[in-house]
Amino acid sequence: MSLDFENKKQALAALKKRFPSIKGGDELAAMNIPEPPWLIPDILPVGLTILGGPKKLGKSYLVMQFAKQIIDQGQPVFYYAGEDTFHLHKQRQKQIGLGASDAYQFTAGRVDHFSSPDKFYDHVSETLSIFPFKAVFVDVMEHCLKPAQVRDYPYYMKELGRWAKLAQHYGIALVMITHSGKNAGQHYPDPLDHIIGSTGITSAADWILVMQRSEDGRGAMLHSEGKMAAAKTFSLVKHNGIYYEIDGLEKDKLIQRQTAQNDILQCIKANPGIKQKQLSELLHKPKGNVSRDTNKLLQSGYITGNPFDGYSPTPDNLDNLDNLDN
To answer: Beta-carbon neighbour count of residue 304 at 10 Å?
Structure first.
């Protein structure tokens, strides 16, 4: 069917009258759409977030830190701690410095209204209709999913899809924790491989967080990615030998551990515009080694420039570079 300009205009108007949800690129461009809201920048947005990782790596401690940060911002939090006792939960609360506050509400163990997966969604929805929590943590996801013989893509899209809609309806961060499966303790090049049923889960969720051990086995990392921003990986360090806490971006910690590149990076930071020959002379390093390491820094986005016109730290990394001195 071929229409002239006037008939196309009339046909488009008739189409939109019949199907009001259809919007044009011109209408989208005119819409005043705010940036996605974050409770914790680059880590916890409004919407459904899935946190996965091996058992005993510290996922519960991590979300309690998130809860503390949200409470410190003046927002109330509800935590379903389905695998905790009151004794264990009180111990964790003390260890992370979460003070006595009625902004933190929780239930420990699979008891009363939150004991049945068939009624779990309804009772959380009712809870949010009564009190305006800004974040809800479900530890663990398995407790709120309805039983099914087959948990495939349609299952996760249906089950988690309604939770994602609930989170958006109330404008909250809703976080579900899940354990990794077989070989969970190993390092995966793609962190999402830690998530069981990852295709359906990652499609339904707005954001994904994955805790995993570092490749060298000496520490841990938190991978963060989703629909609203670029993926980032954070370095995790042990606090008092008890639990992991976030310690900046993993790429910055990695470069800090790579001494040769870090020496060059700090020299460029102190001498913006420095040329490769000057770097070699100042650091007493062979030209070939300096060339190799500056190329790696260029590829990683830490510096800009070239050997002849000079190198400078990238503007986007100025704040991160400052962290390397700590």
So the answer is: 16
What is the spatial distance between Cα 278 and Cα 169, in angstroms, rounded to a whole number? 58
Gap between the Cα atoms of 20 and 17, Å rounded: 6
**Per-residue confidence in pLDDT tens, the chain, 326 aa:** 566 788 888 999 999 999 999 999 998 899 998 887 999 999 999 999 999 988 888 999 999 999 999 999 999 999 999 888 899 999 999 999 988 899 999 998 877 788 888 899 999 999 999 999 999 999 999 888 888 888 888 999 999 999 999 999 999 999 999 987 656 667 777 788 777 666 788 889 999 999 998 776 667 899 999 988 889 999 998 888 889 999 998 888 777 767 888 889 999 999 999 999 999 999 988 888 888 889 888 987 889 999 999 999 987 544 443 333 33
Q: How many residues does the chain have?
A: 326
**Among candidate residues 202, 205, 198, the one with its CA nearest the CA of residue 47:** 205
Residue ranges, comma separated, of all CATH 3.40.50.300 domains in the chain are: 38-249
Provide the CATH number for the domain formed by 38-249 in this structure.
3.40.50.300
Is residue 39 within 8 Å of residue 135, measured between CB atoms?
Answer: yes
Backbone angles phi, psi at 166, to 5 degrees: -60, -45
Which residues make beta-bridge pairs with 249? 234
Written out in words, the top-level CATH class of the domain with range 258-323 is mainly alpha
Q: Token pair for residue 293?
A: 């390491």
Phi and psi for 102 in degrees, rounded to 5?
A: -80, 0
Handedness of CA 166, 41, 88, 56 (dihedral sign): positive
Strand extents, DSSP E, the chain:
38-40, 44-45, 47-53, 77-81, 104-108, 135-139, 173-179, 207-213, 220-226, 232-239, 243-249, 303-306, 310-313
Nearest CA to 176 among 306, 66, 281, 252?
66
Phi, psi of 324 (to 5 degrees): -70, -20
> At CA 85, angle to CA 79 and CA 90, rounded to 5?
70
What is the pTM for the complete model shown? 0.74
